Amino acid sequence: MTAVIADLVTHRGGCHCGAVRFEVDAPARLLVHDCNCSICSMAGFLHLIVPGSRFRLLAGADALTEYTFNTGVARHLFCRRCGIKSFYVPRSNPDGFSVNARCLEPGTLESVTVDPFDGRTWEGSAAGLRHLSSG
Q1: How far does CA 44 lie from the centroid of its chain?
Q2: Which range among 44-53, 84-93, 117-126 shows the weakest confidence by mean pLDDT?
Q3: For the chain, N or C: smaller number of CB within 10 Å?
Q4: Long-range contacts of 90-94 (CB under 8 A, 24+ apart)
C-alpha cells in the first residue's frame, strides 16, 4: 500500500540490479528537469529534486560509489555493481537529493512532465532550482 503524506505519495525505486533501493515522497504527478549539462545529457538523468527529509535509502549504501568533478560539491552516487545513478546530491541543492525519475517504479506515478534545464550555463540557471529542496 502506498503511504500518502499530505499531497505526496511514497514512490519506490532503485538501480538496475536491485542492490540500491530507496523511497521518495513526492507528488503522483511529477515535474522533473532534463538537464543538458555534460554528465546529465550523457546519462539521460531526469531530475526530481526533493528535500533530504523526503528521501530514504532503504538498501545499498555499501553498493554505492561516488564521483565528483568541477567544484566537487555534487556527489554523484552510482551502484558499483550495475553502474546506475538512481539518485545523487546535487550542487544546486546540497541539502537535498535529485532522484532519477527513470529509476522510479511506475505503480505510484500518475504523470511525468519534463521541463528542460540549461545546465550548460549552470551558473546562470541554478538559482531557479534552489527552492526545490526546501520544504
Answers
A1: 12
A2: 117-126
A3: N
A4: 90/47, 90/49, 90/129, 91/122, 91/126, 92/49, 92/126, 92/129, 92/130, 92/132, 93/49, 93/129, 93/130, 93/132, 93/133
Pairwise CA distance, residues 28 & 123, whole Å: 30
Q: Which of 34-38, 57-61, 101-105, 117-121 has the lowest mean pLDDT?
A: 117-121
Q: Which residue has the cell 550555463?
A: 121
User: By the 8 A CB rule, do 116 and 36 touch?
Assistant: yes
Residue 111: closest CA among 101, 119, 100, 122: 101
Q: Are 49 and 32 in contact (CB under 8 A)?
A: no
